[in-house]
Amino acid sequence: MREPVGEDERRVIARMAAGDRPALAELYARYERPLLAYLRLLKPDAGLAEELLQDTLLAAWTGAHGYAGQASVQGWLLGIARRRAHDTLRRRALRLADNSELEETPSAEPNPEDLLLAAAERDEVTAAIARLAPIHREVLVLTFVHELSYQDLAEVLGIPIGTVKSRLSHAKRAVRTLLRAKVTPS
Amino acid sequence: MSAPSDVQTFDHVADLLAAFVNGTLARSEREQVMSHLQRCPGCAADLRAWQAIREATRASVVPSPVVPATILDGVWAALDDHASSPHPTPEQPIPEETMSTVASFPLPSTPVSPATPAWPSWRPPDRAWRRTLPALLAVAAVLALVLAGTIGPGRSALSGLGSVLPWQQGIPPDVPMFRVDPARTGVMPGPGPDGKPEVLWQIKTGGPMQASPALVNGVLYAGSLDGYFYAFDAATGEERWRFDTGGSDAPHPTVADGLVFVGDSNPGQGDGHGNVIVLDAATGEERWRLPDAQGSTPLVVDGTLYVGIRDGFLVALDAADGTEQWRAATGMISRGVTMADGVIYAPGKDGAIYALDAATGEERWRFAIGARLQAVAVGGGVVYVPGGDGSLYALDAAKGTGLWRFAVDDPSVWAPVLVDETVFVSGANSRLYAVDATNGEERWHVDVEGAIVTPAVVSGGVIYLGTDTGSLYALGEPTEDAPVVLPADSGNAGLTGPAEFLWQAANGTEPIDQVGGMAVAPNGDLWVVETNTDRILIYSPDGAFRETWGTPGPSDGEFNFVLENFGGGYGDIGFDQDGNIYVLDSGNFRVQKFDRTRRFVSAWGTEGSGDGQFIAPVTMTVDPHGNVYVADDGRGDIQQFASDGTYLATIASRGPAEGQTECIPAFGVDAAGTIYVPDCWRHEIQTFAPDGTFRAAWGSEGRQNGQFRFPSEVAIDAAGRIFVTDSGNNRVQVFDAEGNFITAWGSFGSGDGEFNGTGSLVLDGAGNIYVGDGNGRIQKFRLLPPLAP
Predict the structure, then answer these.
(1) Which end of chain B is less crowded, N or C, counting CB atoms within 10 A of the terminal residue's CB?
(2) What residues are paired with B474 via a beta bridge?
(3) Which residues of chain B does A140 touch, with a Cβ-Cβ cutoff of 8 Å?
(4) Model ipTM?
C-alpha cells in the first residue's frame, strides 16, 4: 500500500488554494520530473512538453480549490497534465471509447503466452513495449513508472476503474502478441 | 457469511495482479492475492508476465529529463498576467476556475478613505502578497511614469487637430496600435456612441479574432486565426485586402508610416518561432519581414520597431528596412513592450521588468516583480484594473485607493478602454458594457455572438470589436452615411467554402451508431460501415437509404467491426475495378472478399504480429490495381496484399524516429502508389514511396491552415490533391501533392456543413465528397472550383 494522501500534501494544496505561491513552488519541486516525463510521453517535442508543464502548473494553481483529495496529488497533477495535452480528443476519443473495452476471459490454467512473456529476454519485452500503441504504452508507463494506483489511473485517464483493469489486460495481451511473432517488420 | 467462490476470487485476483506487482494494493487485498497465488498456477504465470512487463516498461522509459529552471518563472509571470491579460493565448483559454481563485481579495464596494494605506488595502491579504509589497510599490512607480508620459502625447495629438476633428469629416481618429499609444493606456480617441449602439456591420472570418484591430485613415487592420491578416473599410466593412500569413497567430498589429507590422507566432510551437511581417498599409504587399521573432506585439515609435526575438533579446530596428539599431539582453519578453518618456518597459518572461533607454538600449534598471503593465487602463488620475473575480476595479492612480467596483458577470474580464467618462469593458460572456467612469454604474450593454477576448477600439462614434467566433463588429448609431450591413459577407473564409453542402444522411431518424469506413460502389451508391452494429448501410447518390448488409459473427460472410482490444469500432470497405467487395472485418482480424453479387470468395488474416496478421486493423484501401492495403494501429504499420490475399509487403513501423509513425488511424494511396499517412499522434501527414521508403512529413499540431489536431483520414483525387479530415479542428483540409495548403472548410456544430469531429471521407471521382462525423451522419458536398475536377 502506498502512503495515503499525505497530510502535508493536502496542506500544500490548501495553501495554494489560498493563494500562497511558495506552496506551488514546493509542489513543483516534488513533481516536476514525473510530470515532465509523462508529458514527454504524450508529446515527444521537448519544447511543447515544457509549455504544457507550465500550463499544468498554472491550471493546478487555479484549480487547487477544486482538489477534493479523492486521488493522490500526483494522480491529480498527471490528470491535469493529460487534459492539457489532449485538449480535444475528438474522433480519437470516440474511437478509444471505453464502453467496448471488454474483459479478457480469465483462466485458472497457466496461459502459455504468459509463460512465454515471463521467460522472454527483457530487451525483447522492452522492444515490444516501444512498439505498443500509445493507448497501451501510456497505461503501462503510468502504472509501472509513475506507480499509480488503479484509482489514480482512473482519475488520470478519465475512465472507470473497471476500464483501467481491462485496459491493462489488453496492454498485456498486445505485448504478448508483439512478442509471439518475434518478427520485426523493417 | 460465505467465502467467495474460487472463480469469483480468481477473476478478482487476476485484476489485481498488475497493482500487486506494482505495490499499489491495500494490505487486505495484498494478503488476499498472496494467499490465492499459492493455489493458482495460472495466476503465478500471469504474475511473472506482469513482472516482466513492469521491468521492461521501466526500462523503456528514458531517464527523467532535466527540467529547465525557467519553467516556474514562466508560471509566475503567467499568473500575474492572468488577472489582467487582454489576450489569452489561443491554445489555452483561461479556465473558469482560474479567476475565482486568483482574486478573492476584498475590495470595498464603496470608496475607501484616502488615509487608508494604498495597495495593501485591496491586494489579497495573504503572506505571499505581503512579501511582494516592495514590488507592488515599484509597480505603482512605473504606473505613475506611464501616466506621466501618456496624458501628454495622447491628448496633444488630438488637440493639435484644430477645431474640426477628422471623424467629423468622415474619417475616424486613428488608433494605430494596441491600446492606442506606446504607453498602452487604452485611452481611446472617441467619441463613443451617444447611447446604446446597434450593429452597423458584421464580418465573419474563418477563425477567432483575438487581437485588437488597428484603425488608421479610416481603414481597420485586423488579424484572424484563419491565417489571414485583413484590411477593411471602417465605414462599410468592405474588404480592402488580405494577406496570407501562412498560418499564424496574430498579435495586435501596429500601423506606422504607411506600414502595418504584424507579429505572428505558431502557437503549437511556442515562443520564438514567429515573424514580424511588414506590409504596405495601402496594398497589403509584403515589404520585409523579421524572422525568429518572438510573436509579441510589435511597437513602432518614430521610425523604430521594438520587438522581442527568439534568442532572448529586445531589438530596435529601422522600421523601414529592418536595419538593427541596438539589442538588449532581456530574455524572452511577454507579449509586447510599453514606452513612455523615451524609456522602454519590457516585461520579461522571467518576471522582471526591464527599463531601457529607447535610443541606445542601455538598461536603466530592472525589477523582478512578474507583473505586466499594459493590462490596466489609466486615465483622469484613475487606474482601471480588471480583477480576476469578474469585477472591474477603479483605483485612485496616485494613492492606490479603491474608488468603485463593477461586476461583469463573468470571471474573464479583459482590460478596459476609456473614452472621456465612459469605460468600455467586456468579458468572455459575449457582452460589452459601457460603464460610467465616475461612479461605476452601467450605462448599457450590448450582446454579440462569441466571446470578446480583446479590447474594443472606440473612434468616430463607433466601437470596433472582434470575437473568438471570428466576427468583427462595428457598433454605433445607424445614419444615412453609415447604413446597416448585416451580416456582411465579403467572401471571407468561413462563409463561403470550397465545397457546397448537398445533403446529410443518418440511419433513418437515428444517428448512425458510429461511422466506420466508407466507399463508393461502382454503381455510385455509398456504402458505410456502421461499426457498433456490425453491418453496412447502403445509400443512393442522392442520400436515400437503400438497405443494410451483414450480420454479426465470426463465420464467413459475418462481420465484427468492434476491436475489443483497442476500445473502439473500426471496419472498412472497398471495391476493386471488377466490382469485387472487400470488407475489413476488424474484430475478426481479417479481410473478407466477396464477388459483385456479395457471394463470399475468400478471407485472410489472423490475430498476431507476423506477416499477414493483424493486431488492430483499422482501415483499408483497395487501389485501382486490386492491391489491398490495411493500416494496423496496433502494429503501427500498413500491410499490402494482392487481391487474392497474398502478403506482399509491410510499409512503415511504429516509433518516434523520422519515417516511423506513432499512430495510423488511416492512410491514402494515390495513382502512383504514394502512401499518405495522417499520424494522429504527431499531427502530421507522412508520405511513403510505393516501396515503403519514407519521403516526407508535413504539418504540426495547431489550428492554423496546414496544421492539424488529430488528423484522421486521407483521400486523394485524380489531380493528386490530398483531402484530410482534421478531426480536432472539425474541418476538411486540402493540400497539393507536396503538402502545400490549398483550402479548407468546416467548423464545429451539427448543422449543414458543420462537424463534430470529422472522420471518414471518400471521394466519388465525380466531383463530390462524403464526410462522416461524430454526429453519427454522412454529409455529401459538391466540390467547387478550384477543387472541382
Answers:
(1) N
(2) B201, B464
(3) 53, 57
(4) 0.78
